From TrEMBL:
Recorded GO CC terms: membrane
Organism: Paludibaculum fermentans
Keyword tags: Membrane, Transmembrane, Transmembrane helix
Transmembrane feature ranges: 38-58, 70-94, 153-174, 195-217, 237-258, 296-317, 338-355, 361-383
Residues annotated as domain Major facilitator superfamily (MFS) profile: 1-387
Gene3D superfamilies in the cross-refs: MFS general substrate transporter like domains
GO terms of molecular function: transmembrane transporter activity
SUPFAM superfamilies on file: MFS general substrate transporter (SSF103473)
Protein's recorded name: MFS transporter
Membrane topology: Multi-pass membrane protein
UniProt-listed PANTHER family: FI19708P1-RELATED (PTHR11662:SF399), SOLUTE CARRIER FAMILY 17 (PTHR11662)
Xref: InterPro entries: MFS, MFS_dom, MFS_Na/Anion_cotransporter, MFS_trans_sf
Length: 393
């Protein structure tokens, strides 16, 4: 089950990141400006963030495996259709549909992991899931760089979207049916409890700060490597994929280490929070130095910045699952992702504007670092540690 879930996450992030990979060629063919591409990259997050709350309610109320399968079908079809568009408006429409389909993903992941894994196992389980979020874009840039160079950007969307649909066959066959979904009173905080919780809002806003940086890199890094580092499409694919793969290793390692420390008696909330703060600080410090003239130094700083992402993510979701409890993990994650993914709405647009105005990525990277440092302050001073109870019930 965890393996199938991880494969779906890989597909998820390959599909949501493929527009950034195709952007250099697509913008030339369709005559799009940087500001238009920023708008287009952000369109996914409008519906993705908006539908998070609905998705969180659905996975808590109905059979999570079937809800997830429906969302997967929608986003795969939207990806396939992207290869057939002829203009800007159609691209926006299918990116919006992609966001609706993928909105069920994280509430579903959180629900499945919180029900299926113990507290001291969730760091590694979340690390494996999060590693797939890094391998997905890595596979995407490697496959996309090769495919776009030979066949063009349209076939990249058509084939990735079409082949993704094959995942539904084993998922529908092997995933267990939840016959009690919606029939039992759910434990954990309700909607009003979450909205009133200071710690809940700390996780919501903290994720916004992280996602601002993550989606800046996911959507604009290919263009940065080609335009500012002057890489070819093939070189861009390799240099984009490498830090993502390193991050995947970091997130699994961070999840495993934190689990071992918790199993030996460490307090759950302070430990996971400290891992997250360390990750945000590392990324904030290293990212602006990726603009230095030397390719070697630039990639070194970029890899270190990505390592910080790995320290953060596996512990971020494990922390939320701990605070919410299994009964409310879907709605908590839905609200968290709704607020958090507003960072994905803002970052591509702001980055496109700053790059268009300044001609470089330095101002965009400095802005991202400032947002990450704000996230550090949020986790330090806003997240409350429950004195004895491990959830906000």
């Amino acid at each position: 089950m965890l393996l199938l879930l991880a494969v779906s996450v890989l597909i998820n992030y390959m599909d949501r990141g493929n527009l950034g990979i195709a952007a250099p060629q697509l913008t030339k063919e369709l005559g799009l400006r940087d500001s238009q591409m920023g708008f287009l990259l952000a369109a996914f997050f409008w519906t993705y963030a908006l539908f998070q709350i609905v998705a969180g309610w659905l996975v808590d109320r109905y059979d999570v495996a079937r809800v997830y399968a429906l969302g997967f079908l929608v986003w795969s079809a939207a990806t396939l259709a992207m290869g057939m568009v002829t203009g800007f408006a159609a691209l926006v429409a299918f990116r919006l549909l992609l966001g609706i389909g993928e909105s069920v993903a994280y509430p579903a992941y959180s629900k499945i992991l919180s029900k299926g894994f113990k507290e001291e196992e969730r760091g590694l389980a979340n690390g494996i899931i999060d590693a797939a979020t890094k391998f997905g874009p890595a596979v995407g840039v490697l496959l996309g760089g090769w495919m776009i160079g030979i066949y063009g950007w349209r076939w990249f969307f058509i084939l990735t979207g079409g082949l993704s649909l094959a995942w539904l066959v084993p998922w529908l066959y092997y995933s267990p049916r939840d016959t009690t979904a919606g029939q039992q009173k759910q434990e954990g905080p309700g909607w009003l409890d979450l909205v009133a919780s200071r710690s809940a809002w700390a996780t919501f806003i903290g994720l916004f700060c992280f996602n601002y940086n993550w989606y800046l890199l996911l959507t604009w890094l290919p263009s940065f490597l080609i335009r500012e580092r002057h890489f070819t499409m093939g070189m861009m694919s390799i240099y984009n994929a490498f830090p993502l793969c390193v991050t995947a290793v970091c997130t699994i390692t961070a999840g495993w280490i934190s689990d071992r420390m918790i199993a030996k008696g460490a307090e759950v909330v302070p430990l996971r929070r400290n891992f997250m703060i360390a990750g945000l600080l590392l990324t904030a410090i290293m990212l602006p130095f990726a603009t230095v003239p030397s390719h070697i130094l630039s990639m070194t700083f970029l890899v270190l910045a990505f390592c910080g992402l790995g320290l953060y993510t596996s512990n971020c979701w494990a922390l939320s699952q701990n605070l919410a409890g299994a009964g409310a993990s879907g709605k908590w994650t839905g609200l968290q992702n709704a607020v958090g993914n507003l960072g994905g709405v803002v970052a591509p647009v702001v980055t496109g504007y700053l790059v268009e105005r300044t001609g470089t990525f330095l101002a965009a990277f400095l802005t991202s670092s400032a947002v990450l440092l704000a996230g550090v302050l949020i986790y330090m001073f806003m997240l409350q540690v429950p004195p004895k109870s491990r959830t906000l019930r």
